[in-house]
Automatic annotation (TrEMBL):
GO molecular function, one term: pyridoxal phosphate binding
Top EC class of this enzyme: transferase
Keywords associated with the record: Aminotransferase, Pyridoxal phosphate, Transferase
Domain named Aminotransferase class I/classII large: residues: 57-423
Name of the protein in its database record: Aspartate aminotransferase
Note: In eukaryotes there are cytoplasmic, mitochondrial and chloroplastic isozymes.
């Protein structure tokens, strides 16, 4: 045998076939040759395309990230002050508990459920620190997949944030849509929504955007929330709230938690996902929370024990910097007052930009209706622009937005609002009025 090998080696060397050998061994060692190219993320992919555009005119209205009136990322004054206080404390970098710091969890549960929450008073809430809103949804959905004993179907509004179904699909959870937004009236479809809730299997889960619905900017009115709560209770459906924009709808964190608190008051065993990316501007800190309201303390203890097992295998325990900032703000009355003012300031700037954008389009004599720009609330405006109009905005005018016509109003500022209005006017001027 050795002499056969020696002969082959000599032959190969004689042919100087070193390149061939390299290619052959690489082909054999391509352990990932079965991996297909995936599509870019529908929202974050827009940001990538924006970064590559060299035009000085470019405007990013894709991702929902707040910008100040100079179109710059904004660090909230309350967050800066909290960071300075934390820095002076010279803290260590030990691990956080699996479910996060207990003080942090108590504070965020109160922020979501309110000071008068019965669940908190009776210690029936299980609250954990999550990796921002997405992490809360992921842990929550995975908990449902593993431990929910009823109809494992998650019903989501049509339309909803693109990551909601993606997370469910990754976990193999059946996810369906209920009627939410009426494209004819550009408003909430209460009748369709109620009809769909009535046909959901009892015990299924309904995903609700607590405020500032993403992508439509259309929320149910208080009396409509009341109706929804009653039907959902009657049908024994589990409400799962995603509250990623607390404060961004009305400028008040208490007003924006109306639906969550109403449902809890009505005795629903709600699940609540929270994020501090938007309302504290802590995007990259990845800080949020997940609360499961349980029927009693015994159940809460069991849920908490399983939550620990789930998190330990996912990411062991959460990071500590973001939650320290949130804790500092929510536990210090002066800082909290400053933060509430910061949130109001951001919400007000968005409201002003909505007004200016609408005026800018209307003053050009555009024949379409644009009242929905100011009627909708929160960070996003669901413009009603068609995919070909969106494409023209991007290709011709360097304005980036998602294909569904959603714009992040937070990306509009005094220096670009007129340009955006002019371009929207241009791409819609010849279109037929909406039916
Ligand atoms: C958005 O909808 O733009 C934000 O929630 C950011 C994200 O992660 O998609």
């Amino acid at each position: 045998m050795p002499h056969v090998l020696a002969k082959i080696s000599l032959q190969l060397l004689a042919k100087s076939n070193v390149d061939f050998l390299n290619i052959a061994s690489r082909a054999q060692s391509n352990m990932w040759s079965n991996v297909p190219m995936g599509p870019p993320d529908v929202i974050l992919g827009v940001a990538e395309a924006f970064r590559k555009d060299k035009s000085p005119k470019k405007v990013n209205l894709g991702v929902g990230a707040y910008r100040d009136d100079n179109n710059k990322p904004y660090v909230l004054p309350s967050v800066r002050q909290a960071e300075e206080i934390i820095f002076k404390k010279c803290l260590n970098h030990e691990y956080a508990p699996i479910v996060g710091d207990a003080t942090y969890c108590d504070l965020i549960a109160k922020l979501g459920l309110g000071d008068n929450s019965l669940a908190i008073k009776e210690k029936r809430n299980v609250t954990i620190q999550s990796i921002s809103g997405t992490g809360a949804l992921r842990v929550g959905f995975e908990f449902i997949a593993k431990h929910y004993g009823h109809a494992k179907e998650i019903w989501m509004p049509a339309p909803t944030w693109g990551n909601h179904p993606q997370i469910c699909n990754t976990l193999g959870i059946v996810n369906k849509r209920y009627r939410y937004y009426d494209p004819r009236t550009l408003s909430f479809n209460l009748k369709g929504c109620c009809e769909d809730i009535c046909s959901m299997p009892p015990g299924s889960i309904i995903l609700l955007h607590a405020c500032a619905h993403n992508p439509t900017g259309v929320d149910p009115k208080p009396e409509e929330w009341q109706t929804l709560s009653e039907i959902i209770k009657e049908k024994r459906i589990l409400p799962f709230f995603d509250m990623a924009y607390q404060g961004f709808a009305t400028g008040s964190v208490d007003n924006d938690a109306f639906a969550v608190r109403l449902f809890e008051k009505h005795g629903h065993q709600i699940i609540l996902a929270q994020s501090f990316a938007k309302n504290m501007g802590l995007y990259g800190e990845r800080v949020g929370g997940l609360t499961i309201v349980c029927a009693d303390t015994d159940t809460a203890a069991k849920v908490m024990s399983q939550m620990k097992i789930l998190i330990r295998t996912l990411y062991s325990n959460p990071s500590i910097n973001g939650s320290r900032i949130v804790t500092e703000i929510l536990s210090n009355p002066d800082l909290k007052a400053q933060w509430l003012a910061d949130v109001k300031e951001m919400a007000d700037r968005i409201i002003l930009m909505r007004k200016k954008l609408r005026e800018g389009i209307e003053k050009r004599g555009n024949k379409h209706k644009w009242n929905h720009i100011t009627d909708q609330i929160g960070m996003f405006c669901y413009t009603g622009l068609k995919p070909e109009q969106v494409e023209r905005l991007t290709k011709e005018f360097h304005i980036y937005l998602t294909k569904d016509g959603r714009i992040s109003v937070a990306g509009i500022c005094s220096s670009n609002v007129d340009y955006v209005a002019e371009c929207i006017h241009k791409v819609t001027a010849d279109a037929k009025p909406r039916a």
